[in-house]
Amino acid sequence: MVLNHRYNELSEKTYRRWFNKKLDFLKFNQVGNNEILSTSGQKIAALECSFVNKSGEKTYGLAKFWDSKQKFTHGVIAKGYHQIGKLRYDANLRLLYEGVQKEKGRHKCYDSKWIVGETRKLELAGKQGGVKIYTAIVNSVSLKCNIRIAYLVKTTSQGTRYALLFSTDTEIDAMTLYNYYKARFQIEFLFRDAKQFTGLCDCQARSEVDLSLIKCSSQYEELCSFGVISH
Predict the structure, then answer these.
(1) What is 14-46 written as a DSSP string?
(2) What was the pLDDT predicted at 55?
(3) Is 12 helix (H, G, I), strand (E, B) or coil?
(4) Which of 3, 32, 86, 116 has the largest CB neighbor count within 10 A?
(5) Which pLDDT tens digit goes with each residue over 192-206?
């Protein structure tokens, strides 16, 4: 949806006034979700940064992305949710100590640092699509909490590839963690459609209010095109 007064009877000034009205982005998404999501079962919110080529250097929210950072992760936990994400290969992780404790003094909490690539102290949770999935509960130094990791290893004719996933829910099993993370790729189709067909990249606004409206307008047109809601 490209908001342009040349294509209808409304003036450019009308559109400009509309864009000066604040629209609650989260509430708008909740309305759409209530139309398509069942009241039972687990629900996952997928979050991803996306590049908009007309954003400019002074645009509100530019480069504000805290995925897998302590501030973001603890904010998610404080709201009563859990986070699933991907860690860097050099993530500072400590294995939990499971040995005999001393009778006196402070108990030992952590064992040695876990080195990425070392599977000897991890549990093999299973295999899926040629991917071996190892898991353990470890302590993340940067996130300052215990997490469940799923260490993915896939060997092909071109070599061995690795990935390190995590969840703040230490009770989740590694296979479920892996399948949940794979499901997030579906949001890439929404980004594609929003940029190519519903005007997300046609807006040159920079303020928070204007950007919230263009994001909601773009998503509204996507929901209409999918038949989820009607105009």
Answers:
(1) HHHHHHTS---HHHHHHHHHHHHS-SSS-----
(2) 58
(3) helix
(4) 3
(5) 777 777 766 776 666
pLDDT at 88: 87
Tokens of 29: 């998404």
- Three-state SS at 116: coil
CA–CA gap between residue 201 and residue 195 (Å, rounded): 5
CB atoms within 10 A of CB 69: 13
Q: Which helix (H) or strand (E) holds 133?
A: strand 131-140
The pTM assigned to this predicted structure is 0.73
Cα–Cα distance for residue pair 194/10, rounded to 1 Å = 23
Return the H-helix or E-strand segment holding 93.
strand 93-96
**What does the alpha-carbon distance between residue 90 and residue 68 come to, in Å, rounded to a whole number?**
13
Q: What does each C-alpha distance from 143 to 40, 87, 124 come to in angstroms?
A: 31, 11, 24
Give the position of tokens 């309305």: 31
Asked if residues 203 and 214 have their Cβ atoms less than 8 Å apart, the reply is yes
Please, which residues have CB within 8 angstroms of residue 79's CB and are 6 or more apart in sequence? none
d(C-alpha 49, C-alpha 52), whole Å: 10
Q: Give CA–CA dist 116/153, Å, rounded.
A: 11
- For 85-129, write each residue's pLDDT tens digit: 999 888 999 999 888 888 888 888 888 898 888 888 899 999 998
